[in-house]
Amino acid sequence: MTVKVGDRVEMKKPHPCGAKIFSVLRVGMDYRLKCEGCGHEVMLPRRKAEKGIKLLITE
């Protein structure tokens, strides 16, 4: 999966605020994602983030 900074992704499980769309802020060993609903930033290990991505929205 080729995820780049600036892409938007739809996750399988929603954030506690209810939003499923996240913006990708950092890609490397960890992914830094920003929730589109509430603006909260989350750091996830690469493996867990890639397993949780349902749809890649490139821009």
Give a verbal description of the structure.
- The chain has 59 residues and is mostly beta strands.
- The protein is built from 1 helix and 5 strands; from the N terminus they run E-E-E-E-H-E.
- It has one helix spanning 46-52; strands at 8-11, 21-26, 30-35, 41-45, 53-57.
- The protein has a 5-stranded antiparallel beta sheet with strand order 4-3-2-1-5, covered by helices on one side.
- The longest helix has 7 residues, at 46-52.
- 14% of the residues are buried.
Could you name the key traits of this structure?
59 residues; mainly beta; five-stranded antiparallel beta sheet; 44% strand; globular
Tally the helices: 1
What would you call the quaternary organization?
single chain
Q: What structural class do helix, strand and pairing data support?
A: mainly beta
What do the pLDDT scores average to? 94
Annotation, overall tally of beta strands: 5
Q: What's the N-to-C terminus distance?
A: 15 Å
Q: Ranges with pLDDT <50 over ≥5 residues?
A: none
Indicate the overall shape.
Answer: globular
**Strands of the largest sheet, in order across it?**
4-3-2-1-5
**Cα radius of gyration in angstroms:** 10 Å
Helix and strand pattern: EEEEHE
DSSP strand content: 35-45%
Largest sheet: 5 strands, antiparallel
Helix percent band: 10-25%
